[in-house]
């Protein structure tokens, strides 16, 4: 399986605030990567002792002129996707591509998303991510109710509550979360505005996630597998 290293942006990658990376690859090397392919993400090159930190799926790969970042609208938006919100695109270009091996001023732009390990049963994972649509769509403030819920890092199971929105109760310091009348779910990590400001995301142990799922299945809900 092919590898892409993220030596300068591993934290942003794991926080999922980085969804785009640019590389001055040769055309021959770029041909190893295709849209839809799952590759390994490393914290630095394996030659330098790097380790795998996650798997990513390539959504799009294309050649793009670096000067496109100088567009006053496109450039700042791409800095957010690169994991550098507020960074000057020109400074970004000079820092990472002042000695580019490509002479035509282009780089490969790769858009991606984090996914589960290929072939891994997400229900058997030690930890599981639960995404909750629980914030006011007008201002992103916590609304105290769940309007939709997703289970699994690869979003393998999605449900949208129909006719009812279970209350969300958070423990001190967000140490635990309760969805409606389900058992308390210990929170190992909590991230606000996951993807957009309507969603928050927690990571919990898989047993607790399954107890929440079993409780929801007893109520009125609609689900779909993706």
Structure explained in plain terms:
There is one protein chain. By secondary structure, the chain is α+β, with helices and mostly antiparallel strands. It has 5 helices and 14 strands. The protein has helices at residues 10-15, 27-30, 74-81, 89-97, 206-217; strands at 3-5, 20-23, 38-42, 52-65, 106-115, 127-133, 148-151, 157-161, 168-170, 176-179, 185-186, 189-191, 199-205, 221-225. Strands 12-13-6-7-8-14 form a 6-stranded antiparallel sheet, with helices on one face. Strand 12 and strand 13 (199-205) form a beta hairpin.
Layout of strands and helices, then pairs:
Blueprint: E1 3-5, H1 10-15, E2 20-23, H2 27-30, E3 38-42, E4 52-65, H3 74-81, H4 89-97, E5 106-115, E6 127-133, E7 148-151, E8 157-161, E9 168-170, E10 176-179, E11 185-186, E12 189-191, E13 199-205, H5 206-217, E14 221-225
Parallel strand pairs: 1-3
Antiparallel strand pairs: 2-5, 3-4, 4-5, 6-7, 6-13, 7-8, 8-14, 9-10, 10-11, 12-13
The best one-word shape is elongated
State the share of residues found in helices, binned by percent: 10-25%
Low-confidence stretches: 220-226
**Strand portion, in percent?**
25-35%
C-alpha Rg, in Å? 20 Å
Provide the spatial order of strands within the biggest beta sheet: 12-13-6-7-8-14
Number of helices: 5
Order of helices and strands: EHEHEEHHEEEEEEEEEHE
Distance between the termini: 24 Å
Number of strands: 14
Secondary structure category: alpha+beta
| Average pLDDT over all residues | 86
Largest β sheet strand count, sense and barrel closure: 6 strands, antiparallel
């Amino acid at each position: 399986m092919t590898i892409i290293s993220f030596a300068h942006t591993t934290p942003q990658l794991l926080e999922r605030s980085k969804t785009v990376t640019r590389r001055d690859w040769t055309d021959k090397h770029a041909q190893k990567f295709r849209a839809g392919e799952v590759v390994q993400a490393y914290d630095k090159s394996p030659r330098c002792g790097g380790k795998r930190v996650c798997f990513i799926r390539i959504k799009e790969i294309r050649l793009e002129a670096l000067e496109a970042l100088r567009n006053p609208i496109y450039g700042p938006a791409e800095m957010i996707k690169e994991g550098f919100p507020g960074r000057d695109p020109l400074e970004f270009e000079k820092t990472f591509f002042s000695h580019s091996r490509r002479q035509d001023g282009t780089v490969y732009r790769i858009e991606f998303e984090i996914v589960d390990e290929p072939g891994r049963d997400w229900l058997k994972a030690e930890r599981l991510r639960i995404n909750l649509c629980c914030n006011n769509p007008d201002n992103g403030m916590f609304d105290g109710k769940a309007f939709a819920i997703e289970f699994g890092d690869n979003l393998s199971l999605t449900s949208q509550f129909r006719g009812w929105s279970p209350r969300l109760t958070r423990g001190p310091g967000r140490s635990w979360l309760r969805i409606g009348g389900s058992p308390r779910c210990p929170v190992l990590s909590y991230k606000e505005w996951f993807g957009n400001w309507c969603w928050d995301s927690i990571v919990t142990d898989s047993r607790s996630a399954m107890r929440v799922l079993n409780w929801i299945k007893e109520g009125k809900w609609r689900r779909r597998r993706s």
